[in-house]
Amino acid sequence: MHRALLLALSLALPGFAWAADDCSTEIHGTDQMTFDKSEIVVPASCKQFKVTLKHPGNLPKEVMGHNWVLSQTADMQGILSDGAAAGVGSGYLKADDSRIIAHTRLLSGGEEDSVVFDTAKLKGDGDYQFFCSFPVHSVLMKGRLKFGA
Ligand code: CU1
User: Fold this and answer.
1) Quick one: CA dihedral 12, 15, 17, 22, positive or negative?
2) What is the Å distance from ligand 1's center to 132 Cα?
3) HEC-encoded secondary structure of 30-81
4) CB within 8 A of 118, min separation 6: which ones?
5) Could you point out which of 10, 46, 109, 143 has its C-alpha 20 to 30 Å from the C-alpha of 89?
6) How far is the CA of 122 from the centre of ligand 1 (A)?
7) Separation of 147 CA from ligand 1 center, angstroms?
8) Nearest 10 degrees: CA dihedral of 51, 57, 59, 61?
9) Where in the chain are the domains?
10) Ligand 1 center to residue 107 CA distance, Å?
11) Separation of 35 CA from ligand 1 center, angstroms?
12) How far is the CA of 137 from the centre of ligand 1 (A)?
């Protein structure tokens, strides 16, 4: 194969599966205790979806840590209560919490993390929230996730 074509393919392929149907998104959590998105729409054509959380702030996770957690809206308060009890060392999430559909790790300023989850876990008529499980942050740091819209 032609060398330039090989190079072009190798550059294009790693991101291809995500780029084709926009099966990924990026969200920022800040030192101001906010997310920069209040809604995420997962296209029905996506078998998997990737969320990349970035924390462009400067504060350590013990002070202003952020994660991105996805669950059914009805499960959110229980996950938050158990997460607060689990503490910062556990990323403010109970270990192996089956109510959590997907989550990143808890980030300090300057860090980022990604999570990929199967959209088979979502229903088109489901009611889903994403949020940060650091205590109290979810008052501001939450939003809706819709599947198949
Ligand atoms: Cu947070």
Assistant:
1) negative
2) 5
3) CCCCCECCCEEEECCCCCEEEEEEECCCCCCHHHHCECCEEEEHHHHHHHHH
4) 47, 48
5) 143
6) 24
7) 24
8) 0
9) 20-147
10) 8
11) 8
12) 5
Domain spanning 20-147 has what CATH number?
Answer: 2.60.40.420
pTM recorded for the entire structure: 0.86
**CA 73, 75, 79 angle in degrees (round to 5)?**
120
